[in-house]
Amino acid sequence: MALRSVWLQELTWEDVADYLKDNDIAILPVGSTEQHGPAGPLGVDSYAAIALAEDAAKETGVLVAPPLWYGDSPHHLEFPGTISLRTETLVAVVKDVIRSLAHHGFKKIIVINGHKGSNNPGLITACRSLHEYELPDVFLALADPMYLAKGIAHIKDAVEHHAGELEISHVWYKHPHLIKPEKLPSNQVDLTTIMSEFTNNDLLGKSGDTIEVFWNSREQKAFAPNGSFSDSSKASPEKGKTYHEYMVKNLVKFIEWLRINNGPVGGM
Amino acid sequence: MALRSVWLQELTWEDVADYLKDNDIAILPVGSTEQHGPAGPLGVDSYAAIALAEDAAKETGVLVAPPLWYGDSPHHLEFPGTISLRTETLVAVVKDVIRSLAHHGFKKIIVINGHKGSNNPGLITACRSLHEYELPDVFLALADPMYLAKGIAHIKDAVEHHAGELEISHVWYKHPHLIKPEKLPSNQVDLTTIMSEFTNNDLLGKSGDTIEVFWNSREQKAFAPNGSFSDSSKASPEKGKTYHEYMVKNLVKFIEWLRINNGPVGGM
Amino acid sequence: MALRSVWLQELTWEDVADYLKDNDIAILPVGSTEQHGPAGPLGVDSYAAIALAEDAAKETGVLVAPPLWYGDSPHHLEFPGTISLRTETLVAVVKDVIRSLAHHGFKKIIVINGHKGSNNPGLITACRSLHEYELPDVFLALADPMYLAKGIAHIKDAVEHHAGELEISHVWYKHPHLIKPEKLPSNQVDLTTIMSEFTNNDLLGKSGDTIEVFWNSREQKAFAPNGSFSDSSKASPEKGKTYHEYMVKNLVKFIEWLRINNGPVGGM
Amino acid sequence: MALRSVWLQELTWEDVADYLKDNDIAILPVGSTEQHGPAGPLGVDSYAAIALAEDAAKETGVLVAPPLWYGDSPHHLEFPGTISLRTETLVAVVKDVIRSLAHHGFKKIIVINGHKGSNNPGLITACRSLHEYELPDVFLALADPMYLAKGIAHIKDAVEHHAGELEISHVWYKHPHLIKPEKLPSNQVDLTTIMSEFTNNDLLGKSGDTIEVFWNSREQKAFAPNGSFSDSSKASPEKGKTYHEYMVKNLVKFIEWLRINNGPVGGM
Amino acid sequence: MALRSVWLQELTWEDVADYLKDNDIAILPVGSTEQHGPAGPLGVDSYAAIALAEDAAKETGVLVAPPLWYGDSPHHLEFPGTISLRTETLVAVVKDVIRSLAHHGFKKIIVINGHKGSNNPGLITACRSLHEYELPDVFLALADPMYLAKGIAHIKDAVEHHAGELEISHVWYKHPHLIKPEKLPSNQVDLTTIMSEFTNNDLLGKSGDTIEVFWNSREQKAFAPNGSFSDSSKASPEKGKTYHEYMVKNLVKFIEWLRINNGPVGGM
Amino acid sequence: MALRSVWLQELTWEDVADYLKDNDIAILPVGSTEQHGPAGPLGVDSYAAIALAEDAAKETGVLVAPPLWYGDSPHHLEFPGTISLRTETLVAVVKDVIRSLAHHGFKKIIVINGHKGSNNPGLITACRSLHEYELPDVFLALADPMYLAKGIAHIKDAVEHHAGELEISHVWYKHPHLIKPEKLPSNQVDLTTIMSEFTNNDLLGKSGDTIEVFWNSREQKAFAPNGSFSDSSKASPEKGKTYHEYMVKNLVKFIEWLRINNGPVGGM
User: Where are the extended beta strands (E) located within chain B?
Assistant: First the structure.
């Protein structure tokens, strides 16, 4: 049966019941509403998660749950418009959504995080706990541009951190009217002077020895007053397209593997 | 300044900072992902909240936060596709979103609930607690079709309960392709035989003496096997338009009052 | 067997074991300790719940659990003597009490709330969650004067809101020495000027389109300095008696229905 | 000013405001609803706390908050009628009540526990945490028959444990119709054979070296099938009177000390 | 099989698997990191719990879980170095550790608390709740010097309260280099003048009628500026040895009883 | 002043007060008690954290808080001896310890995690939340062998995952008697066949595009029956020494930077 839509919220419960006769995979896109510098909209991370989920779903015919628009963004709260969930709230939402999906018979659920890394403590906590204590038979996975796009990172011209060239390009490709090209910053925050040499300026690059330093929103406002950490002046819709398609290709490959995966994880 | 969009997620943080120079109202739409019978999509309540928020915002020039697609729907969990948050999770999300908005200087926040009544225990809990203990200076209000549309309920032909004529009409008007007209049920569940005479079949009608009886998802599946409680065979996009515009008009009137409200609630 | 008392706390465990051989209904009265203006005692809501529970129990021979004297009253905290539970505390208490009763074999539990509406978010949250996730086979219901007495509201002379004519009359009838007649206020707070036209001054009257506005204790102290929202100068023990007996009659009718109720809710 | 009643719930908020002009002490009685063998009512512990609070208050002119009828009684849940709060629920209730009292200006609060020892983990947790982190200037104390009556314990004829001679006598004195004298058990459970020699059979007696062993409700049902641990055949209203008056005298002495206490605890 | 070590953390999982073939007892030492006056190290309570656990284990051949170094010490927080867990955190840790041990087949677990009394509300809460609701078949016990050493308390020369003669002696015996003998205080805080006559100066002595008064860290700093409540000038390693061996002997006796205990508690 | 010990628990509160006159850095070692294959003790991760903390502290003269012996290890629970905290428990403990240290005036706290990666969701959650919402002026950092030793990973002969060559070597160097050399496994679990090609077999090596797959303890027992994922047959105390000293050198360098760090993070 061809789905009328990959989005669960557009279907009736009978449509979903039909889908579950032959399918058991669902995708959950998790984003954030968080400042992304002077050129990017607050929804960048959500648009990323939604685009990856939707396009991977269309290619593979799997269902996507409605997106979560809010993520774990305390360190951006000094910038108007940022909406941040406490980590425990994020954990609770994601657990409840996955519990609901599992209740209906979804057996393999892929969380797609658009919020590079920052949501991961909450998302990992939710998935690990559910899989050990509540849903041992439900396969859970977590995909994130920060880890999914290492192989394509070479297309960028600058180091990539918050509001960087690639994530700006990504939204530019998908929602051209939401980027303000004239405001793309060309400055670069050098995090190693701020948080020691054991810090990595490039989330998508190679990393040496690192020690994680925590910064809060007031500190961030001080060291990155326009909200962007990275030079995104070389961002472009074309780069966004290449970046997006690379990640979709990886996700499709993973979903295809998952369809036939027969354990020991998720197939026991 | 004219906003490029009423949706906060489409703006940059600088756009929001500009808005806050002269404005302090925000709307938060809260929906659900929950079965709505054989003809309505799972997203009915979210589409309702989003449409009300967006159109009231456009008329008044206020900002809308990204919607919450999941609500408090345990009693529908036997129908595939329903996603339900625990009440405490809903409380936590709404508190965190409102805290974030208040942090930026939003002083008047209107929660629009699309999920007739069912989200209200959580939404009231969040708002009441925040306003007493954390945000005494932030005005909080809760609007809901179940209470906002009493005056227009006379346009319907049937009693209105879950998946009823008016909420189906509402989505039909806004998203015609998401309704399956050929599946609109004409049966009516008589709740007074199931939950005593102290039950009201019509959420939008007049009510006599009532006692609330709690039913769970297995019981609901038994007494309403197709998921709809109400006859929606007389639903139509036209009715949806009338219903929608009536509620938007009420919301606009409320927002206009709110702009000039000078306490004692919210203006002290 | 005739019970020595309808109050569970006055019986031995063996008495309760005997009762459970042929019965499975229990009533839980939930009140509040909250200012009720210059004429009414802080315990008004608790006295209401206790009186309704006790008299309905006596007529039907069912057991009553000990009352909860504290409710969800944050908005009254500026008035000395008010004791307020956080909503989550109220939820926890009510869940634990119901779990205990269910553990012993009570299968049908009626919560009687004396605190017109204000406890309901917590009480609904507790009951709905228990019935879906923990006690699917235990019938739970919630009765409240605000919904139980619509049909008798016509006896009052004034609009009825907090500390109104009927609830004062109710306690006056049951505990004459606890009312100070000389202090009954004749003023009326017009909530529509304070919280917009979408507010209803009469909790027991008809309502048009409404939007809920949240007020906190400091705001309430400002707009209702004596603690009463309503004119209760026409209160009387006679009205209290009529009001009380009407509600007891409704409760008795409900309990009689419940004895023979055979599902689908609570009888599966 | 003479109070019309020592019970806060019987007063108006203005009465409490008057009281607070010259006074700052309140008593909070905490009981339980828990089986007390074949002869004692489920409310024994609550009656004990209420009686101690009321009589000490009458002698000293201090106010008493409404009682909490439920306590921490998981180990009695196999006996019908027992209602048990989780410890965290008890903590939450007691914290909320004390926070409310402190908000109004009560500066010295005495919790009277009727549930010998069993409520203490929760009560201590609530008081210690509040006093350190939230209410450093509010004096908090905890009185309990198990510690308050050591000096009068010699009047009993048997060792005293759950449902023992003295607590039965206590209720007998105060509520004669609630005891079933013909059912007073004369057997004694020897806890040292069940939980090792490091156990004390007499909660009100001298104790040697002890190690606490935890038993649950199923185990208790096995080792004390009638619910009583102690021989209460020598209980009498007279003993109850002596026991009660001794404890009231201690409480009065403590309250008198507290009135003039000038720190360093509670008077800084 | 002789264990290579009584400490679980020094063994491999296969060693533990071997142990569990013939054994089912484990000990969990719980201490605190809390000021113990000018002469005692912050770890006194942890050293006490560790020493008791280790030596009782060596004599009986049972396993010891790694110690918890932090306890419930809010009232000491004004003294640098004190680390205090919230009671609910302590409950959570102890529950998780016991759940893990029970998962592997440990059926009898003895918690040894080195923190005289102060950890007990949390430890009792954890054990009682686990044993009633989650682990009805796992025997749980709690040993504490405050109750374990009544019979040897006569060897001390002073009353014993916080940082008293016996607990200082205990650590002196086991870790001589951690005591500063030249700083042993000879003053004694008279708690009865500070917290009423219903207070006991000697935690290891006889007690009359008592009422518990809660003090916080600022108050404690005021009434016991050097951190010690008791005269410990007569402390000595020899007393520590006698005290330690007496408690170990009691623990060994208890463990021997436990090996052959056949219910009804823990043997059903 | 030279510290008598780098371990806080060995000092008196006066020693800590002295330290704080000129210093404000503390280290908190966090480990786990978790199976590490047939050759490694359950305490491997704790020994790693303790050794790194102690040796870095000795070189720099900073204080170390007592270690936490338990971590977040649900996926190892099928192996006897593993003790796992829920993530929320770990968060609570670490928050309470850091709050206590900050209360005394420690302004820069370094958490050293010995449990490669697995504790990080909890540790990041604790630190990020504290630094944003409670302790904006306290510098918090997180060091972990998985990120601290990239530059020395080339000394190993095999890919490194759970119970791998380097962490076994690490403990072997520090606690030679705790390793069973004859049991060192030479097999290697190929995780890419189990969890897709988007998995990395080498936690200390380079990584391509990855998607995180969650496995539970039963699945792990199936795919790694002896508990080790990696070939550790080439482990040696010498490698452990090189690995350890490299990480200590990095930590010392970081602490030296931290002493003179003047913001914007941690120095504002």
Answer: 25-30, 63-64, 108-113, 139-143, 212-213
Kind and range of the H or E element at E84? none
Q: Which of B:161-190 have CB within 8 Å of C?
A: none
CB-closest option in C147, C209, C213 to B148 = C209
Whether a cis peptide bond, with omega within 30° of 0, leads into A136 is: no
Q: Strands D212-213, E139-143: parallel, antiparallel or unpaired by DSSP?
A: antiparallel
What count of other Cβ atoms lies within 10 Å of the Cβ of residue D22?
Answer: 8
- As for the ipTM of the complex, it is 0.97
Long-range contacts of the stretch C247-251 (C-beta < 8 A, 24+): C247/C52, C247/C145, C247/C148, C247/C149, C247/C152, C248/C52, C248/C55, C248/C56, C248/C59, C250/B198, C250/B209, C250/B211, C250/C143, C250/C148, C250/C149, C251/B211, C251/C52, C251/C56, C251/C110, C251/C112, C251/C143, C251/C148
Indicate the pLDDT class of residue D2, thresholds 50, 70 and 90.
confident
Residue with tokens 């110690």: E67
- The answer to whether the bond into F67 is cis (omega within 30° of 0) is no
Domain boundaries, chain B: 8-259
**C18-24: long-range contacts, CB 8 A cutoff, minimum separation 24:** C19/C63, C20/C104, C20/C105, C20/C106, C20/D80, C23/C61, C23/C62, C23/C63, C24/C105, C24/C106, C24/C107, C24/C108
SS3 of residue A232 by DSSP: coil
Supply the DSSP symbol for D67: P
In DSSP terms, which residues pair with A109 in a beta bridge?
A: A26, A140
| Best residue of A116, A124, A268 to probe chain F, by most F CBs closer than 10 Å | A124
DSSP label at D199? -
Listing DSSP states for C18-62 in one string gives: HHHHH--EEEEEE--B--BTTTB-TTHHHHHHHHHHHHHHHHHT-
CB F256 within 8 A of CB F108: no
Compute CA distances F213 → A137, D177, F198, whole Å: 13, 66, 9
E253 touches chain F (CB under 8 A): no
Q: Where are the alpha helices (DSSP H) in A203-236?
A: 217-223
How far apart are the C-alpha atoms of F97 and F103, rounded to whole Å?
10
Q: Nearest Cα to B75, choosing from B188, B214, B178?
A: B214
Contacts of residue A225, Cβ cutoff 8 Å, sequence gap at least 6: none
Low-confidence ranges of chain B (pLDDT < 50): none
For residues B67 and B29, the answer to whether their CB atoms sit within 8 Å is yes
- pLDDT per residue over B162-180, tens digit each? 999 999 999 999 999 999 9
Say if residues A210 and A200 touch (Cβ distance below 8 Å): yes
Instruction: Measure the CA–CA gap between F55 and F52, rounded to whole angstroms.
Output: 5
As a whole number of angstroms, the distance between CA D108 and CA D102 comes to 8
D223 touches chain E (CB under 8 A): yes
**CA-CA distance, E182 to E167, in Å (whole number)?**
17
Q: Three-state secondary structure along D119-130?
A: CHHHHHHHHHHH
pLDDT tens digits for C16-71? 999 999 999 999 999 999 999 999 999 999 999 999 999 999 999 999 999 999 99
**CA-derived radius of gyration, chain D:** 19
Chain D contacts in chain E segment 142-161 (CB below 8 A) = 142-144, 147-151
Beta bridge partners of residue F7, listed in sequence order: F64
Return the amino acid letter for E53: A
Specify the fold of C8-259. Answer: Rossmann fold (3.40.50)
d(CA A204, CA A116): 10
Q: Is the pTM of this model over 0.95?
A: yes
The pLDDT assigned to D263 comes to 84
Taking a C-beta distance cutoff of 8 angstroms, is the pair E208, D151 a contact?
yes
Residue of chain D whose Cα is closest to the Cα of C98: D83
Which of D75, D127, D132 comes nearest E217 by C-beta?
D132
